[in-house]
Each structure stands twice: as C-alpha cells, then as structure tokens.
Amino acid sequence: MIDVKGLCKSFGDNHVLVDIDEHIEKGEKVVIVGPSGSGKSTFLRCLNLLERPTAGTITFEGRDITSAKTKEVNQIRQKMGMVFQHFNLFNHLTIMDNITLAPVKLKLMSKEEACQKAMELLHRVGLADKAAAYPAQLSGGQKQRIAIVRSLAMNPDVMLFDEPTSALDPEMVGEVLDLMKQLADSGMTMVVVTHEMGFAREVGSRVLFMADGHILEQNTPEEFFTHPKNDRLKDFLSKVL
Amino acid sequence: MLEWLEGCGEAFYRAFLESDRYLAYLRGFRTSMVLSLFAVLLGVGIGVILALIKYMGNHMRKGIILRALNWIANIYIAVIRGTPVYVQLLIIYFIIFGKLDASPMVAGVLCFGINSSAYVAEIIRAGIEAVDAGQMEAGRSLGLSWGQTMASIILPQAVKNILPALGNEFITLIKETAIVGTIAVLDVTKAAQNVAAITYDLLPPLLITAAMYLIVVIILTKLLGMFERRLAQSDRR
Ligand SMILES: Nc1ncnc2c1ncn2[C@@H]1O[C@H](COP(=O)(O)OP(=O)(O)OP(=O)(O)O)[C@@H](O)[C@H]1O
Ligand SMILES: [Mg+2]
C-alpha cells in the first residue's frame, strides 16, 4: 500500500532521514519506536508530504506521490488520516463542525450525510453528547478521540499517528489507546509513532526501531522485544522497559 | 475673575454658537470620520494582500513570483512606514493628483489608506502568525488546499487577534487625518481654522476641536475595551 524507496530528508546540514526503504502492506499495524530526535516524526510526515522529501520516492496505492502536483497531493491526503501529538482541533469550531468541515468543503458528502456520519462516529467513541461543544471544553483524552474521529470521517485508507498519547495526562492515555485498538481490530492500516511499548507489543503487527535517521531493526513485536539483536535497540529497550 | 469668565463665555459663544458655527464643526467632524473609515477599509484591503504575501514568503517554498512579490511588499512597507504621512499626502495630492481633476477627499482617502495599509499589513501578518502552525497542518492533512485552510481555519482564528489592533489603528488614523486640511479637505481641524479666520480668535476653535477628537477617542477606546473582553470570554468558555 505504501512503498518507500531511498527516502532522504535533510534540514540544511542536518540529515534527518538517510536512504530509507520500507514497505507497508494493507491492514498492517506498523509501530515506530526510537530515541528522541531520531527522525520518527519526520518519517511519518514525509508519508503524507507534510514534509517534502529531499530525495527518494513514496508510492501510495500505486501512485508516486513525491512527483504529484499540489492538487493530487491534496487528494492523496484525503486517504491518509493523520493524528497529531497536540490534537490540533480547530478551536473556533464546534466538535460537529470540526468533523464535518473537510468532507463538506471537499464535496465528498452533503452537509446532512457528513453530520450523520459524524454522529455515528461520535456514538462509537461515546462522545455524542459533545457534538455542540467547543474543543476548549473537552479533556485531552476527549480531544484526541475527536481528532481521530475527524480523520475517520474522511474514510481514510491508512491512519498515521504521531505520538498520540504523549501530551495526555496518564489517566487519559488508556481511553485513546483503547480507541486505537478498536480501530486496529476493524482492519485499518495504521502507522504509529509511540513511546507506549505495551501498545506496540499488543497491537503492532510489526515494530520498527529508528535511530539517527535509519531503521536499524524491525521484527514482530514478540521477537522485537524478547530477542533484540541491534545493540542500540538493546540499550534503548533497557531504558524504556 | 468674573470678567474673565464672561470673556471666555463670549469667546466660546462666538466660536461655536454664533451664526450656527457648530454646524461647520459637525460637518468637518463627519468628514474626518468618513475619511478615517474609508482609509481604514482601503488599508485593510491592501493590508490583507500584503500580509498574505509576507506570510507565504515566510512559510512556503518560494517560487520566483512569490520572491518578487515578497520583495515588493517589503519595500512598499519600508517606504510607507519610513516616511512622514504629511510628505506622502503632499506627494499624492500635488504630484500624482496634480494633473488629474480629482477631489481632495479622494486623494485624502487614498493617502491615508495607503499609509494605513503598511501598518495594517503587519497587524494582520502577526495575527495570522499567532495562530498555531498545527492548525494549518491539520487542515492540509485532511486534504484541504492551502487556500481552503487559510479561509476556513486560519483567518477566522486570526480575526480575534487582528480586530482589537485594527480598532487601535482606526483611532490613530482619526487623529492623523488632522493634517488633511493642507489639501483643502474640510475636516474638523480645517473648520476650526476657518472659524478663527472670521472671529480673529484661534484658541477657542482649537480647544473645541481638540475636545471633539478627545471625546471620540475616549468613546472608541472604551468600546474597543468592551469588545476585547467579549472576545476573551469566548476563549475561556
Ligand atoms: N522543520 C524542521 N526544521 C529543521 N529541523 C527539523 C525540523 N523538523 C525536525 N527537525 C530536526 O530533525 C530531527 C528529527 O526530528 P523528529 O521530530 O523527526 O524526531 P523524532 O524522532 O520525532 O523525535 P521525538 O521523539 O522527540 O518526537 C531533529 O534533529 C530535529 O531538530
Ligand atoms: Mg516526534
């Protein structure tokens, strides 16, 4: 579904991603872990071109998106949901408008369809009573669940998560991870950058270890956590587990 | 003492009430307000465009066109902010409008509108930049174009930062337009000078004019304060 070849990204002299090859199959739940500053966010943001790769190609559903025109990129992004560490809900809009804005503006649904779909999703995550509320009235965990719903309303083929629970108070992490698990069970293709090793172990179909802009090791969660081979990974796991 | 007070009353009577002179002040006052209002509107029109050019220059990959526009915008802003508005007024009316048969009022609106636009541009750009960058990313990640995200997500939030500063700009402009009499626009200051030319007494008309500016500025400042508190409230929710 996503095919990455020779991906490089530099900010000036800072070579953040170095010649990365990776392939993500439909239905996979790929979890990316690694030390701070290793390029995890940058990798994820290259996948939907929020960052422009310096070199390399990314193919999504058979289309080379790195050479696509702006208009096509916008269309491709409709199929790639993204969830941010800081939620990035639209603060001036109600929860309902947050969810329906993009599908309606992009003429994918009528206003009524979009509202109906939004209510369905809100019921699914248990936040139907918040439809008329504003983001500032919600807890962090609720905000992040709404952010996930907002992405889902676009019927994406893949969901990208960049540390979705890192900005949350500990007691709210669970509700967001539960929703992500549900999503995984429903067959969604997911790429998740996270520090939640429990989630990686339980939900991941594959775990990648990233350091200094390279993917140094990847394996099934079982092997990854019990028999790490790379020394950097062993060191990393000894610190976080 | 009593005589002096009587003298004051007399002078004030001649400067304001005799031969319905207060009408001249009021007409002048209306001209000042209309001039300021249209100038601010023009300033906002040009200012938005300048602000968007500068914002794009700061936040997007720069093509040759954008680079050129950005360069022009920077020079425009530097020149307008770096020269006295009085000189700008003289240049626009006597040099640029000199050959045309245009009304001084139009020249005045144009001059103060252009002058204001340079300040408004910075106000708007700062207002846009104060909106968290994550809002643009969230919009783009949903597939919205840059323009769509700007129009329906960034600008509505930027307005909250912009409106109070824009109100201040309007208040400043009202005072600055007092020099527009130079190009024969009958604003309130010019009206006062005209009255003085008849009564041979400059102080009372000037005091009356100053009082009118002061009252309007105080009222507008109060209104603006109330408006800002309302905006802040909707933030807290
Ligand atoms: N827009 C940018 N401009 C310049 N440098 C950047 C930019 N974004 C990221 N970097 C640099 O790229 C490197 C990798 O950043 P990245 O955010 O991808 O790391 P990360 O693995 O996500 O780290 P963390 O776990 O802290 O989120 C860092 O050195 C960072 O300073
Ligand atoms: Mg990161």
Tell me about this structure.
- The complex is a heterodimer of chains A (241) and B (237).
- Chain A has 241 residues and is of the alpha/beta class.
- Chain A is built from nine helices and ten strands.
- In chain A, the strands form two sheets. In chain A, strands 6-7-8-3-9-10 form a six-stranded mixed sheet, sandwiched between helices.
- The longest helix of chain A is centred in the C-terminal third of the chain and has 16 residues, at 170-185.
- By secondary structure, chain B is mainly alpha-helical.
- Chain B is built from nine helices and no strands.
- The interface between A and B is medium-sized, with 31 and 22 residues.
- Magnesium ion binds at residues 40-41, 162-163 of chain A.
- Adenosine-5'-triphosphate is lined by residues 11, 14, 16, 34, 36-42 of chain A.
Search tags:
heterodimer; A: 241 residues; alpha/beta; 6-stranded mixed β-sheet; 4-stranded antiparallel β-sheet; 9 helices; B: 237 residues; mainly alpha; MetI-like fold; binds adenosine-5'-triphosphate; binds magnesium ion
Structure summary:
The complex is a heterodimer of chains A (241) and B (237). With 241 residues, chain A is an alpha/beta fold.
| The top level CATH class name of chain B | Mainly Alpha
Question: Largest sheet of chain A, order of strands side by side?
Answer: 6-7-8-3-9-10
First CA to last CA of chain A: what distance?
A: 32 Å
> What's the total count of β strands of chain B?
0
CATH architect. name of chain B: Orthogonal Bundle
Largest sheet of chain A: 6 strands, mixed
Considering residues with a beta carbon less than 8 A from a beta carbon on another chain, report the largest interface and each chain's count. Answer: A-B, 31 and 22 residues
How are helices and strands ordered from N to C of chain B?
Answer: HHHHHHHHH
Query: Which small molecules are bound?
Result: adenosine-5'-triphosphate, magnesium ion
| N-C termini distance of chain B | 59 Å
Say which CATH homologous superfamily of chain B is assigned: MetI-like
Low-confidence stretches of chain B: none
Rg measurement of chain A, Å: 18 Å
The fraction of residues in strands of chain B falls at under 5%
- Write down the oligomeric state: heterodimer
**Structural class of the secondary structure composition of chain A?**
alpha/beta
Secondary-structure content class of chain B: mainly alpha
Q: Could you estimate the helical fraction of the residues of chain A in percent?
A: 25-40%
Beta-strand proportion of chain A: 15-25%
